[in-house]
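BUG-163 | component: ligand-complex export | severity: low

The export step for coenzyme A jobs runs without errors, but we want the raw record kept on the ticket for reference. Input record follows.
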Amino acid sequence: MENETIFVREVKREDIPTVVEINRRALPENYSIDYFYYHLEEFPDLFLVGIVKRDDLEYIAGYSMSRIEFGFSNFGLSLVKKGHLISIAVLDQFRRKGIASSLIKTTIERLTKKKVNEFYLEVRVTNYPAISLYKKFNFVVTNKIPSYYSDGEDAYVMTVKLR
Ligand SMILES: CC(C)(COP(=O)(O)OP(=O)(O)OC[C@H]1O[C@@H](n2cnc3c(N)ncnc32)[C@H](O)[C@@H]1OP(=O)(O)O)[C@@H](O)C(=O)NCCC(=O)NCCS
């Protein structure tokens, strides 16, 4: 499309209702609005939105929300600093434009600067679009959790080593 640009920025407090709406439309895993506000307060630089700008109009097309945790490595027994991708979604009409990739790329750059060792996420074993997206960023399956989702579907844990 002409005059269309895409960029990523940190979420703002006033974006949260739109982010909640995108989450509800794109994913069966819906969180309370307070859960989003919590991540905005605690990890503001890891809570990003993807913006599509057409002429002078800006649309929030997607978001990604990540946090930092401490725990055992997904690759072994050492204690490490881990990034955890809690949720990512892009509205249907804005998909395949590289928005999710930009969100993940920016998050990985930020985690790397914070000396985070690895970045992981859970994904439905049948969510092929998301799994291929994560493979592009070198995530590999490190675990499988039976019946992780409320409808009984299994999850893959996918992890990428950052340092
Ligand atoms: C998964 C999702 C976030 C991808 O968002 P997106 O902005 O369309 O992704 P990108 O445009 O950055 O795609 C990057 C790569 O991911 C893979 N991919 C994305 N959508 C795909 C699809 N429908 N089928 C196959 N591969 C796909 C491709 O490898 C793609 O690269 P390409 O376009 O060069 O082929 C989006 O489809 C979505 O919101 N899905 C519903 C919510 C969801 O499943 N979230 C993940 C939960 S773990």
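Assignee comment: Attached the raw record above. The first helix runs from residue 16 to 26.
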